[in-house]
Amino acid sequence: MSVNVAVVGATGAVGDLMRRVLAERHFPVKTIKFLASEKSAGKTVEFAGKSYPVEPIRPEAFAGVQIVLSSTPSSVSKEYSPVAARAGAIVVDNSSAWRMDPDCPLVVPEVNADQLHHIKKGIVANPNCVAIPLCVALKPLHDLGTIKRIVVSTYQSSSGKGAKGLADFEAQLKAWAGGGPVPAPTAHRAQLAGNIVTLDWTLDPNGYTEEENKVINETRKILGDATIGVSPTCVRVPVKVAHCESINVEFHRPVSVAAAKAALATAPGVVLLDETKGEFPQPIHAEGSDHTFVGRVRQDPSHPNALSLWVVADNLRKGAASNAVQCAEELVKRGIVK
Ligand SMILES: NC(=O)c1ccc[n+]([C@@H]2O[C@H](COP(=O)([O-])OP(=O)(O)OC[C@H]3O[C@@H](n4cnc5c(N)ncnc54)[C@H](OP(=O)(O)O)[C@@H]3O)[C@@H](O)[C@H]2O)c1
């Protein structure tokens, strides 16, 4: 069967990838339309070798649409995803607006695709770009030893801040590499070229950023265990695309490095790299891939039940667009969208 699709936020960093991923994965499209804000009306976008007009988002635009792939700011998703759902579509929403809503499944297909059978509001939430690869890498290990606690430090790329974040970083990098004065940041919290910065200056009463709280709450929801302890530190690094994560994971029982590597070697969506062959997951290799790259799997010398590992994934693809398209594929495959 083929499906009537709308891509919302089609002009953004994730929306751009959404078009490419739909075409690459040969998603069964019957009709497709591309929506964005009023300011993009009149622009055109390419899809599968054809040019399409960008339409301004309006309630009428969702008539007859079966699947909406939405990547807009959270405030826009809050307003329009329910409108699309009321018009009969299932929305796969990339924003943070619906992720912790108990009536919206938060889905990473390799981990909890079965949750797609529990869509109560017509909205499936696509998780945060750190939580997705974290859960892809940790689910096979959770199955082995049951996770008790995760300590994760993230190294997040400039494109995590969207098209504006990428443009800001590229302008800064050009000036910095040329030895000239670096322009004031327009999207990031401070100069990113040659530097590492926080994602946010706003902290909760415990000293955690919004991103760090997303990682805590979403990881528990995806893995289906609210008792898992999660301690994150999230920073922005001077990289174009792909987020890295240094993970220390403690289990309720010992998990050997050999057993962890054997599980990761066959886990869906994971590419396990072998450090003994000089392989190390890197952003420049992960960029453009839908896989989650895992390496440096090792015993924590300070705890008998803990392992450490290094994980890298393309934040615009597996962290956003590809995960959403995979959800859409599952909706069709499972007969949820007919
Ligand atoms: N970047 C990442 O790594 C990543 C990963 C996971 C999730 N996400 C989430 O995905 C969403 C999009 O992120 P992004 O990085 O692609 O951002 P972006 O590059 O800034 O793109 C935002 C998109 O939303 C559209 N939009 C903005 N205001 C709108 C409005 N009032 N009505 C209709 N459309 C509107 C924009 O259209 P115009 O061009 O017309 O303004 C653009 O197409 C965000 O919620 C973000 O948190 C991002």
CATH fold descriptor of the largest domain: Dihydrodipicolinate Reductase, domain 2
Q: Which regions have little confidence, pLDDT < 50, spanning 5+ residues?
A: none
Average pLDDT over all residues: 97
Largest sheet: 7 strands, mixed
CATH superfamily descriptor of the largest domain: Dihydrodipicolinate Reductase, domain 2
The strand line-up of the biggest sheet is 3-4-2-1-5-6-7
Chemical compounds bound to the protein: NADP nicotinamide-adenine-dinucleotide phosphate
Q: What amount of the residues lies in strands?
A: 15-25%
CATH class designation of the largest domain: Alpha Beta
Shape: globular
Question: Could you please describe the fold and organization of this structure?
Answer:
This protein has 2 domains: 3-127 and 320-333, Rossmann fold (3-Layer(aba) Sandwich); 131-157 and 196-315, Dihydrodipicolinate Reductase, domain 2. The relative contact order is 0.16. By secondary structure, the protein is α/β, with parallel strands linked by helices. α4 crosses α6 and α4 (131-145) crosses α7. The strands form 2 sheets. A 7-stranded mixed beta sheet has the order 3-4-2-1-5-6-7, with helices on both faces. Strands 9-10-8-11-14-13-12 form a 7-stranded mixed beta sheet. The protein is built from 9 helices and 14 strands. β12 (270-272), α8 (283-286) and β13 (292-299) form a beta-alpha-beta unit. The longest helix is centred in the last third of the chain and has 17 residues, at 317-333. NADP nicotinamide-adenine-dinucleotide phosphate (NAP) binds next to α1, α2, α5 and α9. NADP nicotinamide-adenine-dinucleotide phosphate binds next to α1, α2, α5 and α9.
